[in-house]
Design brief:
The structure holds 2 protein chains of 2 kinds.
Chain A: H1 13-28, E1 34-35, H2 49-58, E2 64-69, H3 76-88, E3 92-93, E4 102-106, E5 119-123, H4 137-145, H5 150-163, E6 174-176, E7 180-182, H6 192-195, E8 201-206, E9 211-215, E10 221-223, E11 250-254, E12 261-265, H7 268-276, H8 288-297
Parallel strand pairs in A: 2-3, 2-4, 4-5, 5-8
Antiparallel strand pairs in A: 1-9, 6-7, 6-10, 8-9, 11-12
Helix pairs in contact in A: 1-2
Chain B: H1 4-9, E1 14-23, E2 26-36, E3 41-45, H2 52-59, E4 67-73, E5 79-81, H3 87-94, E6 98-101, H4 105-108, H5 115-125, H6 131-144, H7 161-173, E7 179-183, H8 191-208, E8 211-215, H9 219-225, E9 228-233, E10 236-242, H10 243-248, H11 253-262
Helix pairs in contact in B: 5-6, 5-7, 6-7, 7-8
Classes of the chains: A alpha/beta, B alpha/beta.
Bound molecules: adenosine-5'-diphosphate (ADP), magnesium ion and zinc ion.
Chain lengths: 298, 265
Amino acid sequence: MNAPAYNFAYLDEQTKRMIRRAILKAIAIPGYQVPFASREMPMPYGWGTGGVQVTAAILGPADVLKVIDQGSDDTTNAISIRKFFAKTAGVATTTATEDATVIQTRHRIPETALSENQVLVYQVPIPEPLRFLEPRETETRRMHALAEYGLMHVKLYEDIARFGHIATAYAYPVKVNARYVMDPSPTPKFDNPKMDNCPALQLFGAGREKRIYAIPPYTQVVSLDFDDHPFEPYRFNAPCALCAAEDSYLDEIVTDDKGGRMFVCSDTDYCESRQAAGHHGSLSAAPYKEKAQGGING
Amino acid sequence: MVDQAALENDQPLLVATSISKSFGRIAACRDVSFALYPGEVLAIVGESGSGKSTLLQLLSGQLAASAGHVSYRMRDGVARDLASLGEAERRFLYRTDWGFVHQDPAQGLRMAVSAGANVGERLMAVGWNHYGRIRETASDWLTRVEIDTARIDDAPRTYSGGMRQRLQIARNLVTEPRLVFMDEPTGGLDVSVQARLLDLLRSLVAELQLAVIIVTHDLAVARLLSHRVMVMKGGRVIETGLTDQVLDDPREPYTQLLVSSILPP
Ligand SMILES: Nc1ncnc2c1ncn2[C@@H]1O[C@H](COP(=O)(O)OP(=O)(O)O)[C@@H](O)[C@H]1O
Ligand SMILES: [Mg+2]
Ligand SMILES: [Zn+2]
């Protein structure tokens, strides 16, 4: 075949160096949003071009890539990104969390504990946690610079005043390394504790907003809360219907049009591994893939 | 009225020394000097365009003076030149020991956030971390500014003009500032609503021993609230003195004009 018309992992070396400089700066200042010159990627913004650029910049030929979307390796988005790097970088890909060296994610952190030789790359749509209440960028930058974060608690206050509890379930704000308040991207707050003191490097890329930020390995990450309304990671109170896991984040899946529903692990790799290891839930006799996929996509 | 003995014994809270500000060729504020004492209410009056708002912004550190300086005696008793404060210090001062009540409540409030959070914001900014206590304090303040606490979870965009101003006041006073700046706080309100707001301000100022610098083109506001008046014209202070003296017996022809045209005989 002809030599590919693009560089390793699609981006040219100069662009990758620019992104790596932004990544290094982000690692040096945990939780701080570093501007970078985001490039056009051959996919729409909604597909996580920020994450894709970060992955492209850190990927080496020996890496093993896993891509998840809402915990699943098999959505169109996850498959496309995985194929993109398999084609442009020729790297090996996997769905097994423990086999991956780079994991690009949208919305979830894998249930399997991450290790020091792994990097988790998040696709971020809106990197600025203060924007909800303060739309002026000049002002939010100043707030970060001066660590003026009262406004974050205003948002949590509003939640409690309205719903009786902190209703924010996704993109729940955290303070990184006791300094910068950060938006963990639209991951469920269930995953927030996994960010704390994590052995893996965590990188966040926002393509449209041209920002990169990072949590270096073993960094303190604290979810904001009130003394009388402490942070609580939310999970449906049920075991996974397929693998009986009681510790995993669950998706609620509608099974028919008569109100039937089941709860299954959002992390498909975790769920399948558990089933393969002999764990069975109440519905595990059903063919898992078809049923779950039908529920999610159908 | 001001207790003169107490004032003389005290150190000034804020001192302006020959401050000036030009916008290009417009000298909006020229060579203004005065001292403000704790608990004192100073009204800055004058016709539109005379430089009142510019002076207020200079005094509150929102504008840098072209010449001169402003010093403020911090809570630790040390007088500091505003220009020498770091941005973090200045902003901290601004949301603790100072208040600023704007004519337009949208500038001073978060219109889409509940009244409780509007009042609680300063507390959260200084590290209060107990929802119940923040809410209780906000609720107390709503009561003090005569807002029904049943409205605590409503956003100010659902409030009337008068309520918005009272909410703005509560939001500022919750940290018990020693000095509050006000720029035409009753402007744009109906006369009856104005009267109620003025009564409220008057009693809060007395009760909390607040120092206030209030800009108004309405001499009735100055008469009701202030101990002392500064009359501005073309960026200069042309007359200053005790409120009753200046308004009842103005020396300057310009002040005489102001008084006669606005106050009923
Ligand atoms: N930001 C600005 N740029 C240029 N000119 C200004 C600015 N602010 C005020 N001025 C001018 O300075 C003068 C004083 O204005 P201002 O302090 O707003 O008066 P007042 O509050 O008494 O109505 C006016 O001539 C006004 O046009
Ligand atoms: Mg004005
Ligand atoms: Zn499962």
